[in-house]
Specification:
Helices cover 53% and strands 10% of the residues. By secondary structure, the chain is mainly α. A two-stranded antiparallel ribbon has the order 1-2. A hairpin with a 5-residue loop joins strand 1 and strand 2. Helix 6 packs across helix 7 and helix 13 packs across helix 14. The longest helix has 33 residues. It is globular and about 85 Å long.
Length: 336
Amino acid sequence: MMKYLSKSILLLIFGVAVTCIVYPLVLWVIGQTLFPFQSNGSMLKGPDGKYVGSKLIAQPFTKDEYFQPRPSAASYDASASASSALAASNYGLRDRVGRSLGPVVKYKSGPKAGQLVAPDVESWFSADKYQAKPGIVGQWADQHNSLAQAWVKTDDAHGAYVDDWTKANPKIVAQFIKDNPTTPEPKAPDLAVVFFKDFSEKHPGKFLTATTKTEGGKSVTTIDVIDSGSDIQSTFFLMWREDHPDVELQDVPGDYVTASASGLDPHISMENAQFQLERVASKRAEDLKREPAQIQKEIEGILQENASAPWGGLAGEKFINVLEVNLELDKRYGTP
């Protein structure tokens, strides 16, 4: 009995030593010797020498001086990697695509060919009529209450603003409770639709945006009433499109408005990069007070230098790594 037990114990010790010590150690030595960059997460450094992220995982870039990655259903959180799994008929998907298109899409034909649609979206919004009826914001909230509720939940400052409105409008809240007896103590998101309807009546042709400023060394967020800007261009682009169905717009690269299965794809197609090139070059030129055409030509060269394709170019279309290219822009032109 002891003979078999001792052999079993020795075999267990040997197995643990090989699988838990020797094998990992051999892999670590090989990795650190032959593939140190990949073994340590493919981390990239910024111009200041500090690590800024992995070339394998997308991260958001919001400034116009940068190329932007594909949309992410996981908000670029590697621990929450996932696709949205939304059907083409789902308004949530259409809204996300519309928000991406609003500030950047251009006319394809007509007297304004090549010009941005965004200024016309703002002009249409200021007139405050959708489908010939007044109150664009109120109609938006009523037709898509999930989007109105999402606006309230997106930022704590939004919720606080609605809470303040609740205290200042007890009659409207009382009527809501009367109409919705199953919600006797409504929270800010519950009141999103009636809040926006009331706002639309009091501020026709206006919307709200959160502005963060630094005061006394602290970040302070305020809610401002606006009649122009990217929030209006993006949020109400789809409604503008429904009011202008016959207008012909330029095609947009598919990966500019669609998320990858993981939500973390670090690459964009060369077509997508070219689509963003004018915006990036114009903003960099504005910052540097240089000629946009020259900056655009230089950035075009950066894209070509950093472009690659599957199997060494033998298959597939060219793509670029967004983080690598943006770091190269900072290296050449400085951090915005």
